């Protein structure tokens, strides 16, 4: 059975807004961070996206043909699933649209052989997955800056206990925090 792993990059105050990455993400670039990101992508058997994240990444990565950054070939060849009630076509190679019955579809994907289904960003989708009890692990790449405004990864209303299972310190004070949801008793 495969694990469903949520992988996201954020500021210390939970901002993951792509429009402000120049403030909180770009200044903390390092070889150790690049390696962490690359290893995570290369270690996935499938990638799950919400519609907005898919539409943001698909045009760029589908056009990459020389294995840019060491991950383009993987991103273009791996099975990709996009959850959307409105998307009509997913033209990125090996992409499938999941339109309804999210819990059943994801449960079926998790039951297939392999190691890991990775969710990239996709905060709205993650909330639905968390509420359905489908997330097995969270991996937060936390940058040491407080942005103060922007899109937060977790919106009001979601409550989920987490157990810290590992940490990793990267260059420039960037942390990787690994959490597992605490199952209700």
Stretches with pLDDT under 50, minimum 5 residues: none
Strand content: 25-35%
CATH superfamily: Dihydrofolate Reductase, subunit A
CATH topology heading: Dihydrofolate Reductase, subunit A
Mean pLDDT across the residues is 92
CATH architecture level-2 label: 3-Layer(aba) Sandwich
Distance between the termini: 23 Å
Order of helices and strands: EHHEHHEEHEHEEE
Q: Give the strand order, joined by hyphens, for the main sheet.
A: 4-3-2-5-1-6-8-7
Largest sheet, in brief, is: 8 strands, mixed
Which class best fits the helix and strand makeup?
alpha/beta
What is the CATH class? Alpha Beta
Number of domain modules:
1
The beta-strand count equals 8
Organism: Chitinophaga rupis
Protein name: Dihydrofolate reductase
Pfam families: RibD_C
GO molecular function: 5-amino-6-(5-phosphoribosylamino)uracil reductase activity
Overview of the structural elements:
This protein is α/β, with parallel strands linked by helices and 185 residues long. The protein has one domain (3-181): 3-Layer(aba) Sandwich (Dihydrofolate Reductase, subunit A), CATH 3.40.430. The chain has helices spanning 21-24, 31-42, 51-62, 72-77, 102-111, 123-131, and strands spanning 3-11, 46-50, 79-83, 95-98, 116-120, 137-143, 162-169, 175-181. An 8-stranded mixed beta sheet has the order 4-3-2-5-1-6-8-7. Strand 7 and strand 8 form a beta hairpin. The protein is globular, with a radius of gyration of 16 Å. The two termini are 23 Å apart. The model has no long low-confidence stretch (mean pLDDT 92). It comes from Chitinophaga rupis. This is Dihydrofolate reductase. One of its GO terms (molecular function) is 5-amino-6-(5-phosphoribosylamino)uracil reductase activity. Residues 2-175 form the Bacterial bifunctional deaminase-reductase C-terminal domain. It holds the Pfam family RibD_C.
């Amino acid at each position: 059975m495969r694990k469903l792993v949520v992988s996201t990059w954020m500021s210390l105050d939970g901002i993951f807004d792509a429009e402000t990455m120049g403030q909180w993400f770009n200044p903390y670039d390092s070889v150790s961070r690049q390696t962490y990101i690359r290893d995570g992508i290369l270690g996935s058997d499938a990638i799950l996206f919400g519609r907005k994240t898919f539409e943001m990444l698909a045009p760029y990565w589908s056009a990459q043909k020389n294995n840019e950054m060491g991950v383009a070939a993987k991103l273009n060849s791996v099975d990709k699933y996009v959850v959307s009630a409105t998307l009509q076509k997913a033209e990125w190679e090996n992409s499938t649209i999941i339109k309804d019955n999210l819990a059943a579809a994801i449960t079926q994907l998790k039951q297939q052989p392999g190691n890991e289904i990775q969710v990239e960003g996709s905060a709205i989708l993650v909330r639905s997955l968390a509420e359905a009890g489908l997330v097995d692990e969270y991996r937060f790449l936390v940058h040491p800056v407080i942005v103060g405004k922007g899109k937060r990864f977790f919106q009001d209303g979601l409550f989920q206990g987490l157990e810290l299972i590992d940490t990793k310190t990267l260059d420039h004070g960037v942390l990787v925090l690994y959490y597992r949801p605490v199952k209700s008793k």
